[in-house]
Design a protein that fits this description.
The complex is a heterodimer. Chain A is an alpha+beta fold. In chain A, about 55% of the residues lie in helices and about 10% in strands. In chain A, strands 1-3-4-7 form a 4-stranded mixed β-sheet. In chain A, strands 2-6-5 form a 3-stranded antiparallel β-sheet, with no helix packed on it. Classes of the chains: A alpha+beta, B alpha+beta. Chain B: Keywords: FAD, Flavoprotein, Oxidoreductase.
Chain lengths: ~350, ~375
């Protein structure tokens, strides 16, 4: 029993943090929202160079994974820095293809996974459990859709559906396209993929909440009213204390889910991280006051992301149903042994 | 990073589960906050102790099994899952004993710990005073030097279990001229039946009489009952509160078992169409799991040699708010029967209401979180 990151895992997180801190992600997010993917693509290449997209891909297909703990560390960093693009969706697509391969249908995995793992390609997808929109289909190499028991490469995606977060570019995949696989294995693999999408989104939400808290703490230390820093007022302090409590109790659920990858544990993490990040956004806006209600402050990049992340890949209500369908205790505390192909 | 129990931990779990299945009373004991219940719970402590289950994490020489924090957590999970009685010795075990392990002499440990482990001596805490609650350092009860010891005078209040307990521990002002309020305090243990001690029980919100005021009129305490150096009482009292608040004050096992009972209640009597209530049941399950995993993370840090400091305040606010939400959900599921005073959930609900008040109010905990974890400026309380 050692429910703490190993030194290697912590160092991986620190190196991603340092890299993303140096990369001016707010500019890349703003460009991405405006339809200019160039700075975002550069960011994506750096993440790929750090091995982030290999974490969800089994070694057989050129990856290093699946490594859910490391993936959580990476997606928390992605959320902290508001990295744009279909990171979660590429992870979920990898899980989908690996899940299929695990059931003997390895053609699509052989064809698509090596490029996803290296970062040479990115994917987005829709699943029966996940809403109609494919995130950032305009910049994805592969647009995968699962309908019923069929997995296809969609032929196109139509017009942009603007999200409340302009950096989340939503499209509806067109029907039809090349059939990659069909049958019960697709349904099972889509279930795995939905769990991985929810899991990676939970991590991204936690990172988003942590960024909102950090920025707000820094702001209330320097902003003065009535001749004193507003961070000294008890009403302000207590709201930020509650924000920290919310985030710090989401963290162990996230890493607990990484160790089991059961649907119920993932749902608990997604529910808690999503709600904590959204609460952090409410607090961040309130404590920044009017300047927080502006687009020009970079805080807006995280403020607008928190609510969509809370609802993407499993609304709170959906997550609660999954929790109640699972065990209350005696859930195998660390029982995951690689349903998707590891050891 | 892993959550895997070792083979030894699993074996320990099996042993605890088997013992509890055989020995836990079939019917709940009367409330430990009554005279009758106090006696029944004292007997249960003796039963636990006879097979070394009362203080599993203590060294064997004092009646424990010398197990680490992870096995303690395993034991607690099994204890609450088995529906075993509340622990009447918990003030001594959770609050005084860690202080003794850190600061007492070998003689004191040998004298005080074994009868605490067996339930022969049950301890009450005597921290608060009428004018000193959250601002504990302002306390005024004093200890004055005399031949071979100290004379205690003053008043302590809100003392859990003092109405029926044997002895108490607290801090007293020994140097009224010290420049700051938290200096010149001394940590003392005293006999609740000594000359000069008057106990006045105070009925709690739930009507139970075990809460009390303690009036002290030149009560003699020998030097051997001073813990640590005179004048160092504040530091000694505070040095163990972090780990205790953070790890052992409220066991995750208790909330896991309660959440499981809540889900059973929902499955048998919940209205499937009431999704608002369903959501709160799910939140109770998630909260128990979050608390369990948060505690495992802290235990891992503790086992790796870290001290749990201000982080313990996160824990305290979480479990106390969680406890209330859990019980409110159960009462809503019970509907009209929720108010029946003898019900397990109704009793638990009234008890949960005290959570945000004791062990340092949640307002004080949030100040600690904001100032020490987030680095916000100190302000007027």
């Amino acid at each position: 029993m050692r429910f703490l990151l190993t030194e290697e895992q912590a160092a991986f997180g620190r190196s991603l943090e340092a890299m993303l801190t140096a990369a001016d992600t707010p500019s890349a997010v703003r460009a991405w929202a405006a339809g200019n993917a160039v700075p975002g693509n550069a960011l994506w290449e750096r993440l790929a160079g750090a091995g982030v997209f290999a974490l969800a891909v089994p070694e057989t297909y050129g990856g290093m994974g699946p490594l859910p703990v490391e993936l959580a560390v990476a997606c928390v960093a992605v959320g902290r820095h508001a990295v744009p693009g279909p990171v979660v969706e590429t992870v979920a697509a990898a899980a989908l293809l690996a899940g299929l391969a695990g059931q003997g249908e390895d053609g699509p995995a052989k064809r698509l996974l090596p490029a996803l793992s290296s970062g040479g390609a990115r994917a987005t997808l829709t699943l029966p459990d996940g809403g109609p929109y494919a995130l950032d289909a305009d910049t994805a190499t592969y647009l995968l859709t699962v309908r019923g028991d069929e997995l296809r490469l969609a032929p196109g995606y139509g017009a942009l559906h603007a999200s409340a977060d302009p950096a989340r570019r939503l499209y509806r995949p067109e029907a039809g396209g090349e059939l990659l696989a069909s049958g019960p294995a697709v349904v099972t693999a889509a279930g795995y993929a939905a769990d991985w999408a929810a899991f990676a989104t939970a991590a991204q939400a936690l990172g988003t909440g942590l960024a909102l808290l950090d920025r707000t703490v820094a702001y209330v230390k320097q902003r003065t009213q009535f001749g004193t820093a507003v961070g000294g007022f008890q009403a302000v302090k207590h709201r930020l204390a509650d924000t920290l409590i919310g985030l710090e109790f989401a963290r162990p659920l996230l890493f607990g889910a990484a160790l089991s990858m059961t649907t119920a544990d993932v749902a608990a993490a997604k529910l808690t991280a999503g709600e904590a990040a959204y609460a952090a956004a409410r607090t961040a806006l309130q404590l920044h006051g009017a300047v927080g209600y502006t687009e020009e402050l970079d805080l807006s990049l995280w403020l607008r992301k928190a609510r969509p992340l809370r609802d993407a890949w499993g609304t709170p209500s959906h997550c609660r149903s999954r929790v109640l369908a699972g065990p209350v205790r005696d859930a195998s505390p660390g029982g995951w042994r690689g349903a998707l192909g590891r050891g | 990073m892993d959550l895997l129990h070792t083979f030894e931990e699993d074996a320990f779990r099996d042993e605890a589960r088997a013992w509890l299945a055989e020995h836990v009373p079939a019917r709940p004991l009367p409330s430990l906050e009554t005279r009758e219940g106090f006696a029944a719970h004292r007997a249960w402590e003796a039963r636990l102790h006879a097979d070394r289950w009362s203080v599993v994490s203590w060294p064997r020489e004092y009646g424990g099994r010398g197990v680490d924090i992870f096995k303690w957590l395993v034991f607690e999970e099994e204890y609450f899952a088995a529906g075993a009685p509340g622990r009447v010795s918990q003030n001594g075990i959770n609050l005084l004993a860690p202080t003794l392990f850190d600061h007492a002499t070998a003689e004191q440990r040998a004298r005080v710990l074994p009868p605490m482990a067996s339930g022969e001596v049950i301890w009450a805490q005597a921290w608060s005073e009428p004018e000193s609650g959250s601002d504990l350092a302002s306390l005024r009860s004093r200890a004055v030097r005399t031949d071979g010891g100290w004379l205690l005078s003053g008043q302590k209040t809100w003392s859990s279990r003092a109405a029926f307990a044997d002895r108490a521990f607290g801090i007293f002002r020994t140097d009224p001229k010290a420049p700051k309020p938290h200096q010149g305090l001394t940590y003392l243990m005293f006999d609740l039946r000594a000359d000069g001690v008057t106990i006045r029980p105070i009925g709690r919100l739930d009507g139970k009489p075990a809460f009390a005021e303690i009036f002290l009129d030149e009560v003699f305490v020998p030097d051997e009952d001073v813990v640590g150096e005179p004048g160092q009482g504040w530091r000694i009292a505070m040095s163990t509160t972090g780990n205790e608040r953070g790890l052992t004050l409220r066991s995750p096992g208790r909330f896991l078992a309660a959440a499981q009972r809540l889900v059973q209640l929902w499955r048998t009597s919940g209205d499937p169409a009431d999704t608002a209530l369903r959501d709160r049941v799910a939140d109770a399950v998630v909260g128990a799991r979050a608390y369990q995993l948060f505690t495992y993370a802290n235990a891992s840090r503790f086992a790796a040699g870290s001290v749990i400091g201000a982080e313990a305040s996160l824990n305290k606010v979480f479990w106390s708010d969680y406890d209330i939400a859990l019980h409110e959900t159960a009462l809503d599921l019970l509907g009209a029967d929720g108010e029946l005073a003898q019900g397990e959930w109704a009793e638990g609900h009234v008890f949960s209401l005290a959570g945000p008040i004791y062990a340092g109010t949640n307002e004080i905990q949030r100040d600690i979180i904001a100032e020490r974890l987030l680095g916000l400026p100190k302000g007027r309380r």
